[in-house]
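Each record in this resource describes a single protein on a pair of labelled lines. An example record follows, reproduced without changes.
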Amino acid sequence: MDTKLKDIVLENSNDIVRMWLEEVQSKKNQDYTSTISNELFDSTNREFVNVIFTSIEKQGLTSELDDFSERLINLGWPLSYLTDGMQVFRRVTIDFILTQSEKVDSEYLSKVMKKVDDWVDPVINRLVNEYSGSWEHIVSLQRVALQELSAPLIPVMENITVMPLIGTIDTERAKLIMENLLDGVIKHNAEVVLIDITGVPVVDTMVAHHIIQAAEAVRLIGSTCILVGIRPEIAQTIVNLGIDLTKFPTKSSLRKGFQSALELTNRTVVETDSNDNNIEKLIDTLDRE
């Protein structure tokens, strides 16, 4: 019977394809595919159904299926397009087989449904696995990129580095901050590190604890940590929470923190006369002459 059902489907593939295309096309204006051009949608549908029949004919998953799903992933087509299409194919194929049968009882219906499921389910599972693998890969790349950006240590001058922090600090990110901080201090031979929390929206007990731990770790390897970007509301929160930040310097702005860093490294900012002042002095000298 299995061979007979397969022959019915393959010999009448044109009719099944027509029915499948009609139903899939009727859904176009109602879902995610409404913005896709008719030409692209039609060509993709035809390629999709050909891949399905190739899989049935070869009695298994094919390289054509992998190639097709990979192209759709790269083009940004949703997985639901493929799974919905397979469900439509399941329904259309079962209906067509039943219309070609002289006698339909519960046993025959059960066998037809099981056989069609044997064709359709492996394809759906393969498509879902392909998409899941792609999503996991993308998420992994995004996680690495975010980690690289979430706690950068920037050398701004010899022996002085800055770590600007933006966004919420959780336990995982705090661990990354600690690692980057210690590695960066040694790599750049930093004597002073400025941790800028201007972009951190909330400083609670946990965040302050992580920052204190990072500053203490920096101190243990022989460098000084200055916390900058203490806004008034954050200062008030720190006081209300009873958090002790007296073990290392704090400044309200990065500019003030940088000035302190210069002093700690025996340097200072010296103002020089501008070119305009030099020219005025020269003119005054000429006038006196």
